[in-house]
Amino acid sequence: MIQRLLIIGWSAIVFLISSLTLPALAADLTSGAKLFEVQCAGCHANGGNIVRRGKTLKLKALQQNGYATEAAIAGIVTNGKNNMSPYKDRLNQAQIQDVSAYVLDRAKKGWK
């Protein structure tokens, strides 16, 4: 009986531990700002877009185009789309996360 309870107890503990998800590492907005200035500001200064006016990094445009999350922004940064080149060969995953978080943060603050 005790062995059975121990097995059930350990199974529950293993289940609980395996069902936990570790939080992603927090993005570094300072690093994201620096990366944005070097890699993105040429086309997206102050959240704009010198190539396609309607495809800005302003919150309303991000929402309308389905890119109002860090993950969605990271997808565009990583793989590019239309006139935007992919950055997966220029930036590592942490840098992509940092710049994506920075873009969303600035968008939510109206790029001020």
- What overall form do the CA principal axes indicate? globular
Fraction of residues in H or I helices? 55-70%
* Termini gap: 65 Å
CATH class: Mainly Alpha
Largest sheet: none
Which architecture name does CATH use?
A: Orthogonal Bundle
CATH superfamily: Cytochrome c-like domain
Q: Give the integer mean of the pLDDT values.
A: 85
Query: Structurally, how many domains make up the residues?
Result: 1
H/I helix tally:
5
Q: Could you state the order of secondary-structure elements as H and E?
A: HHHHH
Number of strands: 0
Beta-strand content estimate: under 5%
Class based on secondary structure composition and strand pairing = mainly alpha
User: Which radius of gyration do the C-alpha atoms yield?
Assistant: 20 Å
Q: In CATH terms, what is the fold-level topology?
A: Cytochrome Bc1 Complex, Chain D, domain 2
Low-pLDDT parts are 10-23
GO cellular component, one term: plasma membrane-derived thylakoid lumen
Domain Cytochrome c: 27-107
Family: Belongs to the cytochrome c family. PetJ subfamily.
Subcellular location: Cellular thylakoid lumen
Explained architecture:
With 112 residues, this protein is mainly α. It is globular, with a radius of gyration of 20 Å. Helix 4 (70-79) crosses helix 5. It has one domain (27-108): Cytochrome Bc1 Complex, Chain D, domain 2 (Orthogonal Bundle). The protein has helices at 2-19, 29-44, 59-64, 70-79, 93-108.
